[in-house]
TrEMBL record:
PROSITE patterns: SET
SMART domains, per the entry: SET (SM00317), TPR (SM00028)
Source organism, top-level taxon: Eukaryota
Organism: Fraxinus pennsylvanica
Membrane-crossing segments per the record: none
UniProt-recorded name of the protein: SET domain-containing protein
PANTHER family according to UniProt: TPR DOMAIN PROTEIN (AFU_ORTHOLOGUE AFUA_5G12710)
Pfam families: SET
Domain SET span(s) in chain numbering: 190-377
Amino acid sequence: MREIELEDPKLMEEVDHEEQNLLNLRSKATEFLIREEYEESIQACSQFITLCQDYIYKNSPHFDSDHFLKLQKSICLSFSNRAEARFRLKEFSAALEDCDEALRIESTHFKTLLCKGKILLNLNKYGVALECFNAANLDPQANENSETLNGYLEKCKKLEFLSRTGGFDVSDWILSGFRGKAPELAEYVGAVDIKKSDISGRGLFTTKNIDSGTLLLVTKAIAIDRAIFPQDSGENVQLFIWKNFIDKVVDSATKCRRINSLISKLSTGENEDSMEVPEISLFRPEAADNCSFSSENQFDLGEILSILDVNSILEDAISSKVLGRNTEYQGVGLWVLPSFINHSCHPNVRRLHIGDHVVVHASRDLKAGEELTFAYFDVLSPLSNRREMAGNWGFTCCCKRCKFEDGIYSNQEMREIEMVLGKGLVDMGGIVYRLEESMRKWMVRGRAKGYLRTSYWLAYSKVYESEKLMRKWGRKIPSIESVIDSIVDAIGSDERVVKLYMEGGLKMGVGGYNGVVEMDKAMKFGRGVYGKVMKKQAMKILL
Ligand SMILES: C[S@@+](CC[C@H](N)C(=O)[O-])C[C@H]1O[C@@H](n2cnc3c(N)ncnc32)[C@H](O)[C@@H]1O
């Protein structure tokens, strides 16, 4: 260490000069931050921290305690400013580390506590974020910043409550015609667990009996990209969105260890059955952040691409509903926990997209221990089509419905029905009649009837939608109500089925607004599509 005599005027001058340089550097860093030039601010802060620490190390024996504290405070402030700049650049892990460095120097540093709270809030860690804001509130500086701080405190309390209860309500937003911003949602993990699945790899399971519409998950997207494009813009648009989306995921995974670690739990589609079954607690908003940035979870671009290929979700997919967005929107996103949900052709959960959150709810009643399943593609279609679509996903579906229909297809009658349907422009009433007669002959009962009716949804819906066809076939085929009941029993609620129920009811006086019982049924179907999270009046608008 360099020996200096502070009393020596020449050396004093040198020290003053060095400190002046440090002060200039600190002001520059602050200026960059104010001008929102975050990269530059980070660079200047880093430079200041290194030089100042070095300066203290060299000269501290000759400082009085006030002088020493003053310099330490400056370092604390620089860590705090660097944390703020990193937070703005979404470098959450590095920003949190800076906050902790600053708090090690001054455990009640107001700006740092505020910044740390904001970062944790962004990472959906509402409880610990609230602790930071509460601690900041004890500082005298809280008075000058009461409006900002109270805003964060309120938001945090609300989100913490929502993440514990899942008790959000989007009714007012719906009733206002989706005006303004989407309501604020918090991450929520309901009665679910991750386990080994008989379908493939890992799956998500219920832990208790629940009824249709029950909320199971609310998850914020790791990344999402959407755009509105003209209808005929085709594949190029998708490629454009896909590329932006990949960049966003890579960016988030690089900048945040927690995100990196969570993504690394997802399937690449390879050796899924031997993949580790992660603890559900890892995905809870309050999960401890103990993921180290080891080489194991620093995956390469190829791996990210495979993960995205297997797990990305289109917002406007068939088993989802986008609330409050333009229907021309094309959006693709990654939501971690819902990525553990396998496909089935008789699915039991659906999604609602609200802002950047995906809300997963039961689309029919579920028993404890049942595996949750989405429809990855349109399951209101015949087996041959579904096989093709599953093939595009890279798997063969072996669900109960597929197995049952596979058996039935060996039947000559069935193949003839398919052939006639394939020719198009046929009398759909004739197809429905023939299918119903065949089912009677083969003694197809219970849910299996629903399976087949769902496969020939096209024919059934055409008949029930047409007054002309109903006049011709109405007496020879089952009522719209019994068909819809069996379809909902087979595949849960589906928007198109509910729509037919409402419209058919209005046209033919079945299941319409006339009777109390029918409206109750419509509401139950509606809850399967939109979840329970709204008032009756809002549900009526959606229906
Ligand atoms: C979003 S992941 C679902 C979770 C996955 N099972 C896991 O362990 O992470 C999608 C992948 O699961 C598998 N999968 C999903 N549904 C399936 C099904 N019905 N039959 C076979 N494989 C399925 C496929 O490999 C698909 O690419």
